[in-house]
Amino acid sequence: MALETHVSLESRHLLLGVTGSIAAYKAAELVRLLKKAGAEVQIIMTPDATRFITPLTLGTLSEREVLIDLFPENEPGSWTKHVHLGRWADLAIVAPATAQTLARLAHGFCDTMLSATLLSARCPVLLCPAMDHDMYHHPATQQNLEQLRRYGYEILPPEFGALASGLVGDGRLPDPERIVAHIAALLRRQASLTGKHVLVTAGPTREMIDPVRCLTNPATGTMGFALARAAARRGAQVTLISGPTWLPTPPGVTRIDVTSAQEMYEATLQHAPTADFIFMAAAVADYTPVETAPSKLKKTDDELVLRLRRTPDILAELGRRRRPDQVLVGFALETDNALANARNKLRHKNLDWIALNRLNEPGAGFGTGTNRLTLLHRSGHQEELPLLPKDEAAEVLLDRVLTRYADSNAEKAATQSV
Ligand SMILES: Cc1cc2nc3c(=O)[nH]c(=O)nc-3n(C[C@H](O)[C@H](O)[C@H](O)COP(=O)(O)O)c2cc1C
């Protein structure tokens, strides 16, 4: 793939971590391209990376001294360098990232200059794993990657192809041109929500029947948490209202925990007035018991009849109260007449967008790491997204919503100036 001529990284501060993979030779070309695009590149190598490519090569190409040791012998006063570097950088990249370094980062080990720097970095971090197929697919590596995603790290998955072992499989470091294009896209996204307040709801709700039993659904909150994480990475102030879930709070996100649909309604309406973008990804119960028994219901041989009443419709209420400049995005999960029902919801609830989850397809819907969304806009525009990891689906959804938002603002400005 040829490097896009318009890629500019002028004056960008990039930290490039290089680790002990056979693909470390590609780091030389990567540095050359980053420098050509105008970036300042500070390289940190792990001690093992120096067995694969010399600091002399990378130092010459980056025009900066390569850092390797956490405790450099000749610079006794420089032990806080790793903290300052993490603040200097606009973005840190680890390419190639070994299984060993991924494990270190996933578990917070601080025993190399690179992991110490990344642990204290405030900038976004892009990891580009490169390794043998089976190392990559080992549950330990996959779990480390999953954990790193939850911590907010960006992952550029390796490619399928011929590997250094002579085998063919997943694990190849993408070509430096692709990595540069990815870095440029990440940096463009980075500030796209600065100054904006994004409100996200996520997870299931729980409607208590008695103190130990409830009505709920299988939602885990993964999609909403992915959206909150992605919005925070783009510079937004994010409020995440979450039903019961075990997911950790994404970095930089203010989380409000609720249990019932009524609590979610109240918390959402409280925070909506200041929100610029609202994403309603929670699976909210439509019905709740008319009464919650104060103590555990005793079982009998008779049938138990539960009387249920409607819960408040949060989305419809937000649609009624919305400010004209507020963007309202709903989610739909339909098993029958999915598209028609989603379009109906979009219109009747006064939404800008609706993201339709495909429950009946493998890998999509509740409790999976992936999702297949169909995006519907109030203008009638419709787009089918492929099956994507939920983090990527969140990024694409934000990209689409922000592009439309910028276009409609530009149209409004043009109309006013006529
Ligand atoms: C020839 C050779 C090639 C290697 N290639 C890789 C690789 O591509 N990916 C990987 O995760 N580990 C690879 N390893 C293993 C790492 O070098 C080893 O785990 C090392 O400790 C990584 O340390 P670091 O992450 O601190 O650089 C390779 C080892 C050898 C001897």
TrEMBL record:
Molecular function (GO) terms listed? Answer: FMN binding; metal ion binding; phosphopantothenate--cysteine ligase activity; phosphopantothenoylcysteine decarboxylase activity
Q: Give its E.C. classification number.
A: 4.1.1.36, 6.3.2.5
Question: What does the entry's cofactor note say about binding and number?
Answer: Binds 1 FMN per subunit.
Keywords annotated in UniProt: Decarboxylase, Flavoprotein, FMN, Ligase, Lyase, Magnesium, Metal-binding, Multifunctional enzyme
Biological process terms in GO annotation: coenzyme A biosynthetic process; pantothenate catabolic process
Is Cell membrane among this UniProt entry's keywords? no
An example Pfam family from this entry, by short name, is DFP
Classify the source by domain of life: Bacteria
Q: Which cofactor does it need?
A: Mg(2+); FMN
Q: Which InterPro entries match?
A: CoaB-like_sf, CoaBC, DNA/pantothenate-metab_flavo_C, Flavin_trans-like, Flavoprotein
Q: Which residues form the DNA/pantothenate metabolism flavoprotein C-terminal domain?
A: 193-402
Catalysed reactions, semicolon-separated: (R)-4'-phosphopantothenate + L-cysteine + CTP = N-[(R)-4-phosphopantothenoyl]-L-cysteine + CMP + diphosphate + H(+); N-[(R)-4-phosphopantothenoyl]-L-cysteine + H(+) = (R)-4'-phosphopantetheine + CO2
- Cellular component GO terms, alphabetically? phosphopantothenoylcysteine decarboxylase complex
Segments of this protein annotated with the region Phosphopantothenoylcysteine decarboxylase: 1-197
Q: Does the keyword Iron apply?
A: no
Residue ranges occupied by any Flavoprotein domain in the UniProt entry: 13-185
Q: In which pathway does it act?
A: Cofactor biosynthesis; coenzyme A biosynthesis; CoA from (R)-pantothenate: step 3/5; Cofactor biosynthesis; coenzyme A biosynthesis; CoA from (R)-pantothenate: step 2/5
Binding-site residues, CTP: 286, 296, 312-315, 331, 345, 349
Record family assignment: In the N-terminal section; belongs to the HFCD (homo-oligomeric flavin containing Cys decarboxylase) superfamily.
Q: What does this protein do?
A: Catalyzes two steps in the biosynthesis of coenzyme A. In the first step cysteine is conjugated to 4'-phosphopantothenate to form 4-phosphopantothenoylcysteine, in the latter compound is decarboxylated to form 4'-phosphopantotheine.
Protein name in the entry: Coenzyme A biosynthesis bifunctional protein CoaBC
Organism the protein comes from: Rhodothermus profundi
Q: What is the lineage of its organism?
A: Bacteria, Pseudomonadati, Rhodothermota, Rhodothermia, Rhodothermales
